[in-house]
Structure to design on (913 residues):
């Protein structure tokens, strides 16, 4: 009988040791692949002292890039929140032909290279683009000199493109799971469409919407490929990631450290968004994704 | 005793799932673990299977202590509540799973699976996947799969919970007959007393991690031993102030449990009832529920709510009508002890007496 | 709105691609460095997606099944590659694994070069792809009824056999979806890859996105559109594959 006991104990130990090995592998992976780079950015950005760091992140180019990044992310967030909610409701509350196609189309920016996104706007609005005559006509009509490609609107458009699916993708499952019972009940009791949305639908998807908005913001702030294709002028149409790129590629030891210093701003914003995201997730779990 | 549990204790954190659980099951018998949800019955089943370990006490199968054995070494078949059929394997592969693990030859596996398929009458469905089967067919596959490695004990966790009410009755009889045919010692968990009474040879009633009573279905139903069992089995109505009923004294008791079959209600305009009218209460019909073969009649007797059954053959009644009500037996409860108390006015053989009064000498319904 | 923002621009790429004569189109996409870029992108993305499936499965498993005090921290970290700008990830990884960076210094001392080689590209793609795999497997694993494993266990199957025959098939579709997402992301990846890859035509470390960008910089819109067209077709096929898997999954798993 003692034999058996030992045997059982051994088996228990084996299970626990498998578990321990898995935890160790996970930890090492996360440490090497995720934590190490993060720490590396911080260490590098201060490698020439705090004074250098401060001066590196307060150059005119950096300030302008920061402003543009925040501006583009803000616009993208507004536009995508609005259309994300529209698309979410359309895809879960109405049935129409081609609904599944629409659902798949919304996800396109996920699987298309951001460089291609940038390219496609050049094809459309660039000097030889299909819509450039239209833009020119509008400009001569209104007397404005609006440029899209290699200018601010292009940067904003590209940011909207790459972050388009984030919000609808988060709220669609929640809206599906919530079902239409409560909305129908409210409708039968005489609530108007907007009241139903505000009192029933919105509370249901509140946290998912916030979660999507956080992801959208993070991606918008960090977008590089698409914006890179559409932006040429440093200090004017450069976002923070482009500024990082420019500093890094100019190659001198100082500018590389400056690149990391500017990166640290982006890292800080990313970490902030991650904390917000964790907080949102906690609430999503608490309200039960019922 | 083929399966034996002795003083089993088990806690999950602060929750005591089992407290001093002891019982034994004879070889070849089909027993039910009956109790409300949270009574610890599933935990007991899982401890026998080895899916949970008991904190204290001993579990023996065929005289051998199995506490330290892995589930697979205990010789147990288990039918899960939702059957847990492997979704990515067809019927054949599901049943063969436990055999392949034993490194049986392909030929042996095939023979055994075919034998089981014909036993559960599922021949021809080998290639189907679980989602292509009806609830009853899934249950049969789960049953066959559990039996495949020839276990000595079969454990079933709420085997009818996932089945439509409509076919449940049929499946109950099927499973009972099948288990008796195979002759395997079986234990199943259920919260449904009808299921336990209809299917099992013996019933173990549990509440709050303790065993309340063990016995045959008849014993459990007719002579509940504890307040919990009296209040759980049948269609009990709890009456606090039962001393107000004629023929009973509530002194020293907490409350009474009264079942519908303990209550008789009749109209008063019949000469037959003259003799017992003085012993009857006045009651008003509150509600009448049609049950198919009987009516369940809810009566208000001086503020107490009693229920009785009434044959469809008797005279029609309606809500609001005055009735004469006699309670001829009840379970008087004191703490966790109970006592069968007879109506003092009706003499010793109260039910005989009542029958004579109600039906007269002709034996024909008159009330 | 969807059409204005996404479809029309993409259609213009397709149109541009199709206005080329078939010969010119083939000339462009069969240029040696273009073919090499495609092979590099697809090969590295495939390898990275595979590595991500292995580690993603382990990470998802520990997050769902194990308990340890820094689990919430680890859980939060998974999304880091989502939140971190790709350019930042790119320069950081590139510097770290170059022969002057922290682990790179020691790795190159023992003869392992990561930056400016295919290994570097794979590394960057693993970095950006890991959240996709973890986050697709995790919910499925969390919902997986332990009864399946218990059933296998009672019938005498060991842990490894149970994992292979019972758990893995249940996770299969999610694993494949995660693979597809990480693969698609890897093929299209630009920011995090271009610094560490070195972009040498000779060493075949140019990725497709880089080649497109290069052509854009030289105002070679024809060439860019032609390559983009091929890439769009590839991403479309991956997307289609993922959707087919999901449809099959929901059909099989229905209501049991």
């Amino acid at each position: 009988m003692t034999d058996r006991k030992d045997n059982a104990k051994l088996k228990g130990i084996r299970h626990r040791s498998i578990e321990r090995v898995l935890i160790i592998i996970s930890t090492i992976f996360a440490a090497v692949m995720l934590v190490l780079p993060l720490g590396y950015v911080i260490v590098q950005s201060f490698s020439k002292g705090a004074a250098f760091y401060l001066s590196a992140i307060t150059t005119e180019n950096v300030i302008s890039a920061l402003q543009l990044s925040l501006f583009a992310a803000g616009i993208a967030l507004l536009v995508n929140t609005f259309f994300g909610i529209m698309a979410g409701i359309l895809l879960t509350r109405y049935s129409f032909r081609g609904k599944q196609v629409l659902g798949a189309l919304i996800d396109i920016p996920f699987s298309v290279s951001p460089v291609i996104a940038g390219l496609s706007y050049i094809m459309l609005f660039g000097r030889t683009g299909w819509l450039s005559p239209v833009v020119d006509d509008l400009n001569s009509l209104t007397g404005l000199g609006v440029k899209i490609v290699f200018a601010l609107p292009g940067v904003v458009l590209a940011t909207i493109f790459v972050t388009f699916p984030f919000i609808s993708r988060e709220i669609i499952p929640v809206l599906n799971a919530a079902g239409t019972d409560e909305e129908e009940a409210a409708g039968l009791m005489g609530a108007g469409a907007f009241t139903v949305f505000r009192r029933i639908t919105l509370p249901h998807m509140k946290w998912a919407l916030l979660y999507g908005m956080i992801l959208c913001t993070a991606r918008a702030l960090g977008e590089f490929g698409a914006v890179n294709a559409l932006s040429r002028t440093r200090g004017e149409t450069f976002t923070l990631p482009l500024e990082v790129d420019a500093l890094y590629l100019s190659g001198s030891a100082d500018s590389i450290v400056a690149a990391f210093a500017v990166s640290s701003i982006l890292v800080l914003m990313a970490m902030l968004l991650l904390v917000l995201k964790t907080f949102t997730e906690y609430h999503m779990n608490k309200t039960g994704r019922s | 005793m083929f399966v034996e549990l002795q003083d089993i204790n088990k806690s999950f954190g602060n929750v005591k799932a089992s407290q001093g659980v002891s019982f034994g099951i004879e070889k070849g018998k089909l027993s039910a673990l009956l109790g409300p949800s949270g009574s610890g019955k599933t935990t007991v089943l899982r401890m026998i299977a080895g899916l949970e370990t008991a904190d204290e006490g001993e579990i023996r199968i065929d005289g051998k202590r199995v506490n330290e054995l892995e589930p697979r070494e205990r010789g147990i078949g288990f039918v899960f509540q939702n059957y847990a059929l492997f979704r990515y394997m067809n019927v054949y592969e599901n049943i063969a799973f436990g055999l392949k693990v034993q490194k049986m030859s392909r030929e042996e596996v095939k023979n055994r699976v075919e034998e089981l398929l014909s036993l559960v009458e599922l021949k021809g469905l080998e290639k189907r996947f679980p989602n292509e089967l009806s609830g009853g067919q899934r249950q049969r596959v789960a049953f066959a799969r559990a039996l495949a490695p020839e276990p000595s004990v079969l454990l079933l966790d709420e085997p009818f919970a996932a089945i439509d009410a409509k076919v449940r009755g049929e499946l109950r009889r099927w499973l009972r007959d099948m288990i008796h045919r195979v002759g395997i010692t079986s234990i199943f968990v259920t919260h449904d007393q009808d299921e336990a009474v209809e299917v099992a040879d013996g019933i173990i009633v549990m509440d709050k991690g303790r065993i309340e009573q063990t016995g045959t279905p008849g014993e459990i139903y007719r002579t509940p031993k504890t307040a919990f069992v009296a209040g759980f089995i049948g269609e009990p109505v709890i009456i606090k102030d039962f001393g107000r009923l004629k023929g009973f004294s509530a002194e020293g008791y907490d409350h009474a449990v009264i079942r519908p079959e303990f209550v008789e209600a009749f109209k008063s305009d019949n000469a037959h009832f003259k003799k017992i009218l003085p012993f009857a209460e006045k009651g008003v019909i509150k509600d009448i529920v049609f049950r198919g073969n009987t009516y369940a009649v809810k009566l208000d007797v001086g503020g107490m709510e009693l229920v009785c059954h009434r044959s469809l053959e008797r005279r029609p009644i309606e809500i609001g009508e005055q009735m004469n009500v006699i309670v001829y037996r009840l379970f008087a409860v004191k703490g966790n002890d109970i006592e069968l108390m007879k109506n003092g006015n009706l003499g010793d053989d109260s039910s005989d007496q009542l029958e004579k009064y109600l039906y007269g000498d002709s034996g024909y319904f008159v009330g | 709105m969807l059409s204005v923002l996404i479809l029309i621009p993409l259609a213009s790429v397709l149109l541009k691609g199709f206005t080329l004569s078939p010969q010119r189109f083939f000339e462009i996409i069969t240029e040696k460095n273009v073919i090499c870029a495609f092979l590099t992108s697809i090969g590295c993305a495939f390898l990275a997606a595979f590595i991500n499936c292995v580690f993603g499965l382990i990470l998802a498993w520990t997050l769902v099944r194990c308990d340890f005090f820094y689990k919430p921290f680890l859980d939060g970290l998974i999304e880091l590659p989502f939140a971190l700008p790709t350019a930042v990830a790119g320069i950081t990884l590139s510097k770290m694994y170059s022969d002057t960076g922290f682990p790179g210094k020691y790795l190159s001392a023992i003869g392992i070069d990561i930056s400016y080689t295919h290994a570097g590209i794979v590394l960057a793609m693993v970095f950006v792809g890991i959240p996709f795999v973890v986050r697709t497997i995790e919910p499925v694993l969390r919902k997986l009824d332990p009864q399946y494993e218990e059933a296998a266990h009672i019938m005498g199957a060991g842990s490894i056999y149970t994992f292979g025959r019972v758990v893995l098939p249940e996770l299969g579709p999610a694993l494949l979806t995660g693979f597809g997402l990480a693969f698609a992301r890897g093929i299209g990846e630009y920011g995090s890859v271009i610094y560490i890859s070195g972009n040498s035509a000779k060493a075949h470390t140019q990725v497709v996105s880089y080649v497109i960008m290069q052509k854009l910089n030289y105002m070679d819109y024809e060439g860019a559109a032609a390559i983009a067209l091929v890439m769009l077709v590839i991403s479309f096929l991956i997307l289609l594959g993922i959707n087919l898997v999901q449809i099959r999954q929901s059909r099989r798993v229905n209501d049991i």
